[in-house]
Each structure stands twice: as C-alpha cells, then as structure tokens.
Design goal:
The complex is a heterodimer. Chain A is built from six helices and ten strands; from the N terminus they run H-H-E-E-H-E-E-E-E-H-E-E-E-E-H-H. Chain A is an alpha+beta fold. In chain A, about 30% of the residues are buried. Chain B is mostly helical. Classes of the chains: A alpha+beta, B mainly alpha.
C-alpha cells in the first residue's frame, strides 16, 4: 500500500513524529555529554583565573596560552591558596567559589532583598598574596567578562578578559596580550578613594608608562567595548572595596 | 577505481574538480571567508561539513519516499540543524578550545547552502549509496578549497602552519624574517579569502577552458 504523502493529515503526523524523534535524540545526546561539557567549562574557569594570576604557558610576546587542561586542576590547587565567598560583609571559605555563576548572581542582585555572593580567590605569586576577582559586563554586541588579579592595595597584578561576540579585529582585541598587559601595575585606588581604571581614548600616555593615571590606552575602533571594560571594572571591582579595606 | 562503478566514482570526483561547489557553483562562500584565517579551523570545518553532508544525505535519501513534499524544505532544515547540534555538542565535549574558536561558525553550517542544495537536488531523488557518495564528494570539494585557502592565509598572513612558526620567528628575526620578509597582515582579514578563492577559480578555469561561461 502506497502512502498518500500529499494528505494534510499525513503531513501533520509526519511533522509531529519528526519533532519527537529529533527531540529525543538531541535530549539524549545533550544529557549524555553534559558531564564532559561541564568539566571543560570548569577547566576553562581555572585556566582563566590562573592566567590573571600570571600562571600560563606563554612563550612568545603575543601568546595567550593557558595551562593545558590535563594539568590545570592540579596547578589550580597549587597556586590558589584560598577561595572565599563574600556575602553581605561576611566572608566564608568555599572551595568551589570559582564555580559561582557571576551572570546569575548579578541577575539575582536586581532583587534588593538579595545579598549578592561575591567569589574571591587568593593566590600566591612570588611570595606575595594576590587577590583575584571576577568581573562581568557588556561589550558592544554581547557579554564581556574577565578576572582581575590585585594586590592588597588594589594594584593590578594581571588581568584576563574574554568576550562572547565582539567584532574580530576591533572589540575582540580585548583578549590580546597588548591590551591585557597594559593593565598590570595600574591602580584602582587614589589614596583611599576608589577611582577605577578607565580605557581612555586620546590617552596622552599611549605607551602606558605612567601607572597612576587610572587609564590605559583604548583600542582603535572599539570605543563601546572599551567603555564596557571600564564600566565592568568600575562596577564589579568596587564591590570588593570593603574587603580590601579590611585587609589593611 | 575498482571499488566503485564509473558512475559512482564520478559522484565523488566531479565536485573535487569540474563541478566544485565553491569555485564552480559559488556556494558556501561565507563560511569559506569566515574560518579560513588559519589551517586548523579550516580542517575542522571541512570534517564537520563532511559529517553533516554524508549523514544528512543518507538520512534524507532514506526518508525520500515518506517526506511530504509540502514540508520537505523544513524537514531538510531539521535534519541539518540536528546534525549540526550533534557536531557542536561533540566538539564542546571533546575539543572545547576549538569549539570556542569556531563558536558561531559551527552554527553557520546550517545555513551552508551547499548542504541544503545537495539535499534538495540529489538526496531527494536518489538512492542511499549514491546520495552518500554525492554528499561525501561535495563535502570533500568544499573542504579542499577551505584547506587550500586556509593554508595560504595562515602561511602568508601569520607565517605559521597549525600554529607552528614554519618561516621563522618574526619577533626574533630568524629564518626568512632575517632577510627582511614580513607577514602580510591583510591575508588574515576576510577580503583576502575572497581574493584567494578568486585566484583558485582563475587557475581552474584557465586550465580547463570548458568551464568558462560566455
């Protein structure tokens, strides 16, 4: 018996059957691979945090090479001495603080009753304690995020930035060495006041030799991404100010 | 080829040369521009498309007698989309760094007109084995061009192949750079992919005059 494939009822049944079958296949696949994907995301966070701390595999002057995934867990545990969660002025130790989803936290924080959980990682570099804070903001097209490593006076020791969909060659350059390296040595504080670090156009210090002007040189053609970086640093690092105050 | 009949081997060999999807049919150009700045993503893209086209053509061919013709384009789209999501998930699980690098381009396989074109033009009207060969052939034809373009763009633009500094170190001034060679940064930008594809088309047509249209 030949099926009449032109009938409307057949078309509808076919469509429904197809959706069910495809849905089942994809759902099965996604849940089957989830543990692997999750692990990869975790390694990536560890790699990024270590990169901000200055632990990387860079060889050339322009490289951004992470610690390989197979040893990153070990290295992470070696270099990151403590992880804290700061919630409403209270600091608690939490070995999985790095897994806190900054995006979800900032969304929840829109509710005035919610005390936002702020993760903080304490690492050690050259015998000095380094505090790494995560930041997240908006670029031109989509989210930008990163990690900023600070000493106890909020002087930048290293940064790592990443983005979801900035323009290649323009905004996407925020994850290039020449941009990220400029931040090292810049100060968030002016005396005791939080000033932040600005990605500035028309910077009269393009080589970035002056380290206490709270400015780094902007990327040509990426004004809005640069402003996004400034705003992200201003807003997210500021939340940690009281913690840093308590250190001194 | 002893393994395949003459007609079957034509299905594989034609798209590699005289009926190449990129250089002759001028399909799939956007992905050829987007991901060919380096060799490695070009090869991954080629392999991904090979998988999607090979399996997709087989699936469509298997279903060709039961697909209602009214919704056949949607059915084709669902098949491509499903296969692409599978590729995306597998890359995320087993090659995370690469999946980040390819990010949206994997998704863009869905819009690769070569795939929909072969589904519609070939798999809907041919048997499973022939559809499979046609899919593989076209994907190979597409992949070969991607790899050629990726090779030249990475070599001339960054002086590397697979990230290895084959021409010496531009900062330390070793190898070719010692005698004043410079990378051509323009090669890394998308317009040069179009120009390289253009050059391939030129070479191909000047070797085979039959391909030139009036």
């Amino acid at each position: 018996m030949a099926i009449d494939t032109e009938k409307n009822s057949y078309t509808v049944i076919f469509a429904i059957a197809m959706v069910v079958v495809v849905g089942a296949i994809l759902a099965g696949l996604a849940s089957g691979l989830k543990p692997l994907v999750k692990a990869n995301e975790r390694y990536e966070k560890q790699q990024n945090i270590l990169y901000a701390l200055g632990v990387n595999n860079n060889t050339g002057a322009n490289d951004v090479e992470f610690i390989p995934t197979n040893i990153v867990e070990e290295e992470f545990n070696k270099y990151i001495k403590k992880q804290y969660v700061i919630q409403g002025g209270e600091v608690t130790e939490d070995d999985e603080a790095y897994l806190i989803d900054i995006k979800k936290e900032s969304a929840k924080a829109k509710n005035p009753d919610y005390e936002r959980r702020l993760p903080l990682f304490v690492g050690e570099k050259d015998g000095k304690e380094v505090y790494i804070v995560p930041v997240r903001g908006k670029g031109l097209w989509d989210a930008i995020w990163g990690y900023v490593a600070l000493d106890k006076d909020m002087v930048v020791q290293g940064v790592y930035f990443d983005h979801k969909g900035e323009t290649p060659g323009l905004g996407a350059e925020i994850k290039q060495r020449y941009f990220m390296d400029d931040f090292t040595g810049e100060k968030f504080l002016d005396g005791d006041v939080f000033k932040g670090i600005k990605v500035a156009k028309g910077n009269n210090d393009p080589k970035n030799t002056i380290k206490d002007d709270h400015e780094v040189d902007a990327l040509a053609g990426a004004t809005i991404t640069g402003d996004g970086v400034s705003a992200m640093l201003q807003k997210d690092v500021r939340m940690y100010k009281s913690y840093f105050d308590s250190l001194n | 080829m002893g393994l395949l009949s003459k007609k079957d081997s034509k299905l594989i060999l034609d798209p590699l040369a005289d009926n190449n999807p990129i250089t002759i049919q001028v399909l799939g150009i956007c992905s050829a521009l987007a991901i060919t700045a380096q060799l490695k993503p070009s090869i991954v893209m080629a392999i991904s498309v090979l998988f999607v086209m090979g399996v997709g053509n087989v699936v469509i061919s298997l279903m060709r007698n039961i697909i209602p013709s009214k919704i056949r384009i949607i059915v084709q789209l669902i098949v491509v989309a499903t296969l692409v999501i599978i590729v995306d998930q597998v890359l995320k699980a087993f090659s995370y760094a690469l999946s980040k690098e390819l990010s949206v381009f994997i998704g863009l396989i869905i819009t690769n007109c070569i795939i929909m074109g072969r589904f519609e033009a070939f798999a809907l009207g041919n048997g499973v084995w022939r559809s499979f060969l046609d899919g593989i052939g076209n994907a190979l034809g597409y992949g070969v061009i991607l790899i050629i373009v990726g090779f030249f763009r990475e070599l001339l633009g960054s002086g590397t192949l697979f990230g290895l500094k084959v021409l010496g170190d531009p900062v330390e001034k070793t190898g070719l750079y010692a005698i004043g060679y410079e990378n051509n940064g323009f090669m890394v930008l998308p317009p040069m992919a179009l120009i390289v594809v253009g050059l391939i088309i030129w070479v191909q047509r000047s070797r085979n005059k039959a391909l030139i249209e009036d």
